[in-house]
């Protein structure tokens, strides 16, 4: 009897160990399940990776692909399916309008250098681009950059009696700088613009005022603070119209020439 019990017990233990081994083998051989997240009904659309300002020259890293609902893809948006090389193809183009980070890119708002007309493309309707000679000491030491706003100051000599007296007048106010020369460089860790000309965005009347001022004396640019450099914050005045905001400088009681101010 004892021998039979030992045999039965041995068989039971062996069967239990075998079942445990088989169960363990089945668990360890279960394939790993990977979860893949994919938005149904979406496509990749080209968007701005960073803020892009008007007139900025864009690079490939200014763009990124972002998932967009298929039903939200409107004509003009760039998809990865239709233009997979769009970031490199658009690199070097100039922004005709500003973009905020995450905003979809539209080719109509960019212009390639090879197409020409870059300055004309970024000029608002009705405005003119006109350049004026400057020197570092007459342009805030070179710290005036494109898209800054400035006052234009005329310095000249006016004859009073038998003497010539120096006179300065602000002939234009709060005008936007389109370009300073052609290049930017670093100076003491700051970006500065280098060049012998400043290109300003003016109305046709302001362009006439600046042209007249250039013939009279030296032009200086006075950089405005961002706090008060608001477009259209000051009224436009007509040349020689004293009732519409023009300035008349008095020197020893003698009035100088009148200029309209904007």
Strand share of the residues? 25-35%
Please state the average pLDDT score: 75
| Total strand segments | 13
Largest sheet: 5 strands, antiparallel
Rg estimate, integer Å: 35 Å
Q: Which strand order do you get reading across the main beta sheet?
A: 5-10-7-6-11
Low-confidence stretches: 235-262
Report how far apart the termini are. 119 Å
Listing every helix as H and every strand as E from the N terminus to the C terminus, the arrangement reads HEEHEEHEEEEEEHEEE
DSSP summary: helix tally: 4
Broad shape: elongated
Helicity range = 10-25%
Protein name: Flp pilus assembly protein CpaB
Organism: Methyloceanibacter superfactus
Pfam families: RcpC, SAF
Domain SAF: 43-111
Q: Explain this structure to me?
A:
The chain is α+β, with helices and mostly antiparallel strands. Among the domains are: 42-112, Antifreeze-like/N-acetylneuraminic acid synthase C-terminal domain (Type Iii Antifreeze Protein Isoform Hplc 12, Alpha-Beta Complex); 128-223, no CATH class. It has four helices and 13 strands. It has helices at 2-28, 86-90, 118-122, 204-216; strands at 42-48, 63-69, 94-95, 110-111, 128-133, 149-160, 163-180, 183-187, 190-194, 197-202, 218-223, 250-251, 254-255. A five-stranded antiparallel β-sheet has the order 5-10-7-6-11. Strands 1-2 form a two-stranded antiparallel sheet. Strands 3-4 form a two-stranded antiparallel ribbon. A hairpin with a 2-residue loop joins strand 6 and strand 7 (163-180). The termini are far apart.
